[in-house]
Amino acid sequence: MSAALAELAIAHKFLATAYNAVSTPLPENKGKDRKVRFLDRAVIEAMHILRENGTATAAGSTASSLQPYDSVRAAFFEGG
After folding, report:
1. pLDDT digit string, tens, across residues 10-25
2. Where do the domains of the chain lie?
3. Following DSSP, what letter does each residue of 56-67 receive, concatenated?
């Protein structure tokens, strides 16, 4: 697993723990072929929060030592 994917996995775990603590279900990707990506966005936002707050990352360094992401690119198909 790449460091970036490991960082996303940590962000997902953080998000799931936070939602579980307040007894709220995680957002879900919805719509035809799950094109409305509520969960994906929440995980990416959580990753940015972890980096901003200097939380440990998968690489073992603190997120404060990493540059913030300027953009996120993925194989998400647009349109219908």
Report:
1. 899 999 999 999 999 9
2. 3-65
3. B-TTSSBGGGSP
